[in-house]
Amino acid sequence: LKLDASTDFAIDAVIALETYFYLICNLIACASFHDDPAAYLRHIRTLSPKQFLTFLTQLVDGSLLEDHGIFGCRFAFDFDWVVHGNTNQSVTELRDALSELSEIWDQDHLRIPGHDPLQIIHHSLFPKNLLHITGQFYTPEWLAELLLNDVEWTPDKRILDPFCGSGVFLVQALERAKALGAVVSDVLPNLLGIDLNPIACSAARANLALYIGRQKQKPPGPIHLNILSADSLAPAITKGQNQSSPLRLWSASVSIDGETVSLPQFGSEGTRSNIANRLAAYGLQLSKWVDDTAEILDRKESGPLSARDRRIWEQFFIYAIKPADVVVTNPPWVGWEYIARPYRETIAEAWKLYDLFKARGLDAAFLKEDLSSLALMVAWDFYLEDGGKSAVVLRPATMHSDLTARGVRRLSLADNGTPLNLRHIRTFSNIRVFSEASTDAATWEIKKGESTSFPVRVTEWSKQTKRWNPETSMTIGELEPHVRSNDKYASPTDPNNPESRWIIAENHILRSFSALQGKNDYVPRMGVFTGGANAVFYLEQLDKEGSNGTSTYRNIVARAKRLASQTTAILEQDLVYSVLRGRDIQMWHATPRVYLLCPHTRITRMYPIEEPELKSAYPNAYSYLSSMRSVLTERQGFAGWERELLQKCFYTLQRIGEYTFAPYKVCWKYIASEFTVCVIDGGKHSKPILPNDKVMFIPFESSSPAYFLGGILSSTP
Asked: Once rounded to an integer, what is the mean pLDDT over residues 626-644?
């Protein structure tokens, strides 16, 4: 399923999928506490519509799990409409659909492998393009197990995941605790997960409940699942706002589901324990996560319960959390261009709090910052105690990118802030870490409160056989025979600049690298970026150039993240260029296969051709672009002054300068497991070839220096 998010149908479809997934989570968790889960699920089909609605009500509000001694699911999300908004036919269809979940059980054995089956179900239900732009790269079980080994977590230590997703780190913590001889019910109070997405939280609760249900031993007492649905970034946002406006004359507030709510006075005695007590009414047991001395009850009824009330108190508690001994997480990987503009503005002060966003002017225009950079700083600042350990999954670009993640590489909380000791790095060469995404990953092990000493040890994992890739549900024991490790080291390219990018190499290469440190005259550039409208600007040619300087083209909509209607158009050749994508590059060789409509010139550079001139000189191109105006004006990949340029010229592109039109370019893939270099020669094509935003390049006006540099860059160390 591929959805166009601009349509009402897409919104309804996503809500329907999330609702169905929420019901699946709770139902699988309930089924696991029966001797024959398959029979339990088949029995649902025998319920009358009235009986099923009663059953559905208890499933939705979480009380059905409380019948099995599992608390913490009560009013986790407001799905009352599922119960009250159905016709008799839809009730019957839903009943039968839920009953069919019996097919994933073989009597008491779940057919889906591993301890995080909800992750696999989630990937099978939701559109891949939606998961990609929202950064939902769920952590495989073997990687969660690996990170818990890295921090040497033991059941007596409090462990927190501030971006918990389906709860894989917490479930793996239970598995590790079990192996160490601990009792599950004793360990659970030391586990805390937080996620902004309430649907992800339902999966985390269900996975924890499922793990307990599979033990086939009834817990000796009530089980409390401490999963909170809240924005983990909120405390940093509030702190940043207070620093930017220290004379604030109004009470601090927080936005919760679009509603502005005043924050409690956290300096008052008993405030934190009072919040914990309010949440105890929903089945949460949070006594180990507050510093207040006031009594915290396991269960306390405090007025009527509701999903809205729970969400408010959950968000309040985020401000009250006592930092954990251990933080493990895989933060959301969401590119700056995919963050909704209102939320960008909301989190702006948090970026400033950690001195993360220093780029200005053109540097800011070329920035490809990621929400994960801010998320990591917040995780270490608010949720990890001094001296505590943390292991995280992050983008390798955090270490290698010139402009982005500079503040994270600084390894301190803000300039001259609390130091962070990076003790170990792990990289995965040619290993597909996420089964549902071709995205590279790395891990860091951090200790808070100590400075980092470079070089830092790096363990590089690579696979033994070319076609093998790990399954999500694998254990470390199952994975290790398929991989080999190689020791390397990481060090900044500029020892006088703590924010400079790093080189990762064998020790002898690092020692020889000092002679190469410093600046040079070659300036790498990033290729043309459409701002999220590849489906408009990327073209395939349908015929040869005619005598009047035009050809027939069709826009390429396959694989586009933002859809546009497919159109065939006659366009002026002067504005159409061969475009080089990362996939078109091989070592020393490049084969552009598609074209790009570029309404810019070497003279106009970052500014497109003015609209009156475009309309007069290139009427075909102007007509085609005008037909796509609605798609082009809604692009999200523009920030700051670029937004003003988009409003003035709806067809503008980004990352364009005089260098874009240079006849010769040394190019390499922006993201690749190996450094792959080629030289493109515009002279052979009678006009320049334009790299896209997945390609980095250095421009030249003549061939000799281009081929010289290409030869140097493609040599071995």
From this structure: 85
